[in-house]
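User: I'll paste a sequence; please echo it back and then give the predicted structure.

Assistant: Echoing your sequence first, then the prediction.
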Amino acid sequence: MPTLFKKKKEMWGPTVPDLMLGLSLAANLIYTAWKVRTQVHMLQQNSYRNERYLNWMRKNPGRAFPPKDLLPFAALLPLFWSSLNLAVLIWLLIYVYLLVTVDKTPEKKKLVYTFRVKRLLALLAVVFLVWLLFLVSYAGPAVFFAALVLTNAAAPFWVLLGNTLIRPVEIAVQDWYYRDARRKLAGMKGLKVIGLTGSYGKTSTKHILAKILAAKYNVLMTPESYNTTMGVVRTIREMLKATHEVFVVEMGAMQRGDIKELCDLVAPQYGVLTAIGEQHLETFKTLANIAQTKFELVEAIPEGGIAFLNIDDPNICAMPHTGNRKYIYYGLDAKEAHYRATDISFDARGTTFTVRTPGGAERQFQTKLLGKHNVSNILAGIAVAAELGIELGAIAAAVRDLNPVEHRLSLKRYPNNVTVIDDAFNSNPVGSRNALEVLGAFPGKRKILVTPGMIELGSRYYEANRAFGEYAAAVCDYIILVGEKQTAPIRDGLQGRNFPSDRMYVAKGLGEAVQRLQQILQEGDVVLFENDLPDIFNE
């Protein structure tokens, strides 16, 4: 067969069978391709941001640079006594071992092969091919083997380099998509655009709001977690139709200016702010930065527009409410709220509450959703719908038909009267406490919690998770923690409340946690899954 190794017969002295050399190189290339694909997955989960990806590498050196990737250096030893055939054989066997022992843990969130990922992988393939041809042409055996081992071991840096090299291309592509989305929106003069943000509650509120508004309008909402600029751009270009009357845009942020960038794109006439809290404190550094970023939505609302604010949130109330826009407040506690929910009660069937409107009208609402925070989310939707001219009767009917958003306090029934409360999408100090409140009020034989705790809380990480553990100790009969390192603060909280150690189990991963749960389940148990961390947080 054709070979790339003709020059090797002169440079390497005694020849190695082409088939053996080819298989050895193939094994290295396959393992390197797997490594690169894995690291691109981590880059994607870090939003393609080099600084966040570098921080992930710093915190997870064993996952970014597994020590076993240096095992192929053992193939260099036979070269000291000129045994090239043995060196190639050892090299082949080691890479077969590495391929057989790759981490087979199922990915919670698969790598999405977007055009951006495909462009990055194509660039890395070209760079690596050039590097390989250089080695084939000029390197002797020891340098050839060592260079490929280091190339494989340094896969994260190759991904970092590729992401840096391709950045000008990505900026140009994104700019074109952005301007195309702006042109499309500019042509839809009658479209009502509602921006929605908050440290937590925004995704659930988005689904609730879209469902309620659908009682009168043709509504499009940003799907799934498409809450970044390019996610919204994609939604506009691929999903927004001339027949849509309302566009509900979820707005996420990881740094100052992110929400302003989204507002510059969609120009919302209405804005909903659910909460300002410690979520993403690790990247924002201070609560003041989070508050100012969330209020970028409020500041973007034009004169004549309406900002809907959760008056129960002290951090929202502390911000200056300036400008000629109209402010509508909703809440459960404050009597000053324009839209207020009272008489809240919930059971296995859902939640019942009464709403008072600015005109003094009152109406009882029923919903299958659980938790006070969901009442607050629904109240935001009621306020927006009422201000957009939908009658309370139609709103009540829509609220009655609401279904839980997947993994957000959704109920699942299993044999032997076992109930699972699935709140695994994410977690924050307020939401986790509300979830435990729901668990505690639920009828059942035993209350079981499965959780890895909360993340991205910066300096508040330990304190918030310890408090979570303290509250869980008062509610739960058995607790399964996922991850030994990241749940240490929760364990401290449990121990501080004298929670029995024989009713707590620490699992290495979610799979082991589920196995333990299956071992201890009894008839009538109620299980709360609170949070499920992305792959980048696997220990």
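Residues 189-400 form a domain with the UDP-N-acetylmuramoyl-L-alanine:D-glutamate ligase fold (CATH 3.40.1190.10). Confidence is low (pLDDT under 50) at residues 1-11.
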